[in-house]
Structures are given as C-alpha cells and as structure tokens.
Amino acid sequence: MPPVLTVKAECRIQAPPVEVFTLLTDLSTWPDWNSFVPSVDIVEPSEGATVHPTLSTETSESAKQRKPIQIGQRLRLHSITGTQKNATIERVTILETPPTAISDLPQSFSNTSRIYRVGWDLESYPRLLLRVSRINEVEEVEGENGVESLYRTKADFNGPLAWGVKLSVSKDLQKGMELMAEGLKKAAERAVQVA
Predict the structure, then answer these.
(1) Which whole number is the average pLDDT over 152-163?
(2) 75 closest CA partner among 113, 49, 101
(3) Does 6 have pLDDT greater than 80?
(4) What is the pTM of this model?
(5) Cα dihedral 85→64→182→149 (10° resolution)
(6) Which of 9, 17, 78, 93 satisfies CB 3.0 to 4.6 Å to 181 for a cystine?
(7) Domains of the chain, with CATH numbers?
C-alpha cells in the first residue's frame, strides 16, 4: 500500500559526496545550515555504534565537537513547520557509505553504487497510529567541473494520524524539506570553496 503522504526534495550540489554526507551526518553542524531542523539532541547513544568513517578517524579539536549520527541512536529533532515548533523522537535505522574500491566489497555486498544513505524512523507515536520513515541519499554524479553530489530526501507517512498530517501541515513539511536541501547545498558548496 502506498504511503498516505510523501514529502521529498532533491538538489544538485557542487561538492564531493563525502563533504555533503559529513555535514548531513554531523548533528553539530545542523544549526548552521538547517532551518527546518535547526537543533538535534542525542537522547540515547548507540552501543557498538557504526560511525561514518570520515568522522570516526579525525583527531582534530573540531572533531571532538562533532555529534556524528550513529546507527541505533535515538534523537530528538526540533523542527520548525510553518509557524509551529515541534520535537519528535526518531531512531537512526540506516547509515551506509559506499566502498572506497570495488575490491573492498564482500561478494554479497549490495551497495555497489556511489550512494551514501542515512535514515531514521519516528518513535514519538505508537506505530499503529503513525509511522514515518525518513531517508536521505547523497549520490556521486559527474558534473561540468568534476565530481558533484545529488542529494535526495524523502519522508513517508503512514497510519491513521498520517491523514491529519496530510490535511494540516503537508505544505509546510514540503517547504521544510526544500529548505533543508537548500541549506545543505549552500553549506557544502561554501565548505568546498573555503578548503
């Protein structure tokens, strides 16, 4: 059965995917570029967490300030939808990075593309009433000046309460997704210019 509501956004970013994904998965950067979800708290850290490799190998002072997304974490996302401020609890369910080389792949590995993924599911409501799954993808694509990124984000809403969401705030959610994509684009392109 298709979702009751799907909101999504997409943009091309003139920056390498690892730069875009690093910004996307470092929660400490969100206040600087994400006007849709300007604040995130880690409610429950993940045991035996999987951290994005770029973030896990850094030793600089700035790396100590980072809040990397990890599989299994519970997060409180503070979003701004229209004129309303909301806080929801989400669990990180997807964190995938492509291999650095095809030879690094186990034979059963399915992500042979150059796509980075991070996603989370809503835990604020009973799943019987409302289920929301959010996925963010950063795909490596060729641009006029070399490697660029294609950022895609999508949230699927299901369950009886999804109808209320669809009727009351779907346009605001759509605008929020577009603002998040635009903010990520500007921040990643600015970071590449500075480097």
Answers:
(1) 98
(2) 49
(3) yes
(4) 0.85
(5) -140
(6) 9
(7) 5-194 (3.30.530.20)
